[in-house]
Amino acid sequence: MSFVEDFVFPLSTSLTTFLGTVVFLLVFHLFSSSFSSQEKMKEPPGPKALPLLGNLLQMDLKRPYITLCELSKKYGSVFTVYLGPNKVVVLAGYKTVKQALVNHAEEFGDRHISPIFYDLNNGHGILFANGESWKEMRRFALTNLRDFGMGKRSAEEKIIEECHHLIQEFTKHDGKAFDTTQPLNYATSNIISSIVYGSRFEYTDPQFKGMMTLIHSA
């Protein structure tokens, strides 16, 4: 008798736990289905998404743009996909993107900011910010950059001048393969230096190379 009790009791407990789990999953599925159906009425059409995974299994993760182009043929130039639990509205085609960014710039002006970056800068700055704070900082940055020549003929001339030095640096390798990272970084820094200080550095200048090393090691 004790053997039967020892066997039946854990079996009934496991069965109760299993039934409870099934009931919970059914309730969760019904709730999520009703919630998603309400959401679907407010968002553009798109492929059906799986819980948590979204549409990731339907996408070519190495070349997602190919999958998105195929989906646009079925659902139109504006459609919805889920990258995991995150909902993404996709705009496909030049006309659609232009209409969104030019005709509705205010509505599409905000960008997704990762919570970790938002906590680091408290919603301020240019790169990881939105709203009025971002607009004010952008206006301030553009105004000061224009004072240094951005968008003017003088800045264009400095860029062209530095391009000549960069080409000379490339020709030293006689068509052989080489790492372009360092020369391009030197050229970019020299353009900024020419605009801000009115002078540039030679690529062989040890002081200049030392400063670049410190910048990239920081």
UniProtKB/TrEMBL annotation:
<feature type="transmembrane region" description="Helical">
    <location>
        <begin position="12"/>
        <end position="32"/>
    </location>
</feature>
<dbReference type="GO" id="GO:0020037">
    <property type="term" value="F:heme binding"/>
</dbReference>
<keyword id="KW-0472">Membrane</keyword>
<keyword id="KW-0812">Transmembrane</keyword>
<dbReference type="InterPro" id="IPR050182">
    <property type="entry name" value="Cytochrome_P450_fam2"/>
</dbReference>
<keyword id="KW-0479">Metal-binding</keyword>
<dbReference type="GO" id="GO:0016712">
    <property type="term" value="F:oxidoreductase activity, acting on paired donors, with incorporation or reduction of molecular oxygen, reduced flavin or flavoprotein as one donor, and incorporation of one atom of oxygen"/>
</dbReference>
<dbReference type="Pfam" id="PF00067">
    <property type="entry name" value="p450"/>
</dbReference>
<dbReference type="GO" id="GO:0006805">
    <property type="term" value="P:xenobiotic metabolic process"/>
</dbReference>
<comment type="similarity">
    <text>Belongs to the cytochrome P450 family.</text>
</comment>
<dbReference type="InterPro" id="IPR001128">
    <property type="entry name" value="Cyt_P450"/>
</dbReference>
<keyword id="KW-1133">Transmembrane helix</keyword>
<dbReference type="InterPro" id="IPR002401">
    <property type="entry name" value="Cyt_P450_E_grp-I"/>
</dbReference>
<dbReference type="GO" id="GO:0006082">
    <property type="term" value="P:organic acid metabolic process"/>
</dbReference>
<keyword id="KW-0408">Iron</keyword>
<dbReference type="InterPro" id="IPR036396">
    <property type="entry name" value="Cyt_P450_sf"/>
</dbReference>
<dbReference type="GO" id="GO:0005737">
    <property type="term" value="C:cytoplasm"/>
</dbReference>
<dbReference type="GO" id="GO:0005506">
    <property type="term" value="F:iron ion binding"/>
</dbReference>
<protein>
    <submittedName>
        <fullName>Cytochrome P450 2K1-like</fullName>
    </submittedName>
</protein>
